[in-house]
Amino acid sequence: MTPTQFKTAKLSDFQTPTTRILYGQRLKDVQQIQLSIAKHGLLNPITVMPRGKKLVVIDGKKRLAALRRMRFTGNLPRSLVNVPYVIANQNTLQTPHMSLLSNREKFDEAIALRKQGHALMEIASTLYVSKQCVKDLLCVSRLSPRLQQAYFGGSISLDQARAFATLPNIETQDMLLVALGPFANAPEILNAIENGETVIDMGDENVIILPSRKVPNPLPLAA
After folding, report:
1. Strand 7-10 and strand 82-87: pairing?
2. 217, 191 Cβ separation under 8 angstroms
3. Please, are residues 206 and 215 in contact by the beta-carbon 8 Å criterion?
4. What per-residue confidence (pLDDT) applies to 96?
5. What is the C-alpha to C-alpha distance for residues 144 and 40, in angstroms, rounded to an integer?
6. Which residues pair with 86 in a beta bridge?
7. CB 61 within 8 A of CB 21
8. pLDDT tens digits along 126-145
9. Over the stretch 3-29, which tens digit does the pLDDT of each residue have?
């Protein structure tokens, strides 16, 4: 079901700046998107710029081609007779893959596809994201429950989540979040981890020095 914040329009209302013949790898990409839409639906709206009565496609040309091919063959889902779209602005131009899914839904979808044995590129094609984005989404499974909820709720970004996930100890992840706060960007988080600059007092004569694990009590000096 399309969220109310997205507008919809008929396929005939969309227009691409240039007409391209589908062949080779581009045709394979479009065919893969057709399979994805048939199985999962359209997970991202098409980004457009209004021009008169037409909606010129800025991002989503392959998705539009896939939808048109599905309509031609009679396989277009009824739910996509009207296609969701967003109007391009500075934010959508910088981050064109604006998803219809929440952070939690994207993560769940990536994990489910991975468990089904899909390769990273197949997942990327299904979700209309980069292969690196898929890797980042899968990293969320290595976060502590607290950090996962922070990502799902939008308190931290996927870049931040990936940085925290480089720490294997989930308790240490939580402590680093407290030490740095939710506004530290990914480079700052990674820098703190790599340089071991964050020292956390455990209160039992032990400390955690990131990225190290718990440091044992020092042995008594020989008499």
Report:
1. antiparallel
2. no
3. yes
4. 40
5. 29
6. 47
7. no
8. 776 778 888 999 999 999 99
9. 445 789 999 999 887 666 667 777 888
Q: With cut-offs at 50, 70 and 90, classify the pLDDT of residue 67.
A: very high
How many Å apart are CA 85 and CA 36, to the nearest integer? 18
Strand ranges, E, within 39-90: 46-51, 54-59, 82-87
DSSP E strands in 52-188: the ranges are: 54-59, 82-87
- The pair of three-digit structure tokens given for residue 217, joined into one six-digit string: 């009590």
Q: Which amino acid type is present at position 71?
A: R
Encoded tokens for 155:
């308190």
**Omega of the bond leading into 211 within 30 degrees of 0 (cis):** yes
What average pLDDT score do residues 37-45 get?
84
Characterize the bridge pairing of strands 199-201 and 207-209. antiparallel
Domain residue spans of the chain:
7-94
What separation in angstroms does the CA of 33 have from each of 41, 56, 184? 10, 20, 36
Amino acid at 101: L
Q: Are 162 and 136 spatial neighbours (Cβ–Cβ below 8 Å)?
A: yes
Look up the pTM and report it: 0.53
Rounded CA-CA distance 158/20 in Å is 34
Pick the CATH number of 7-94 from 3.30.450.20, 2.130.10.10, 3.50.50.60, 3.90.1530.10: 3.90.1530.10
pLDDT confidence of residue 145: 93
Phi, psi at residue 148, to the nearest 5°? -60, -45
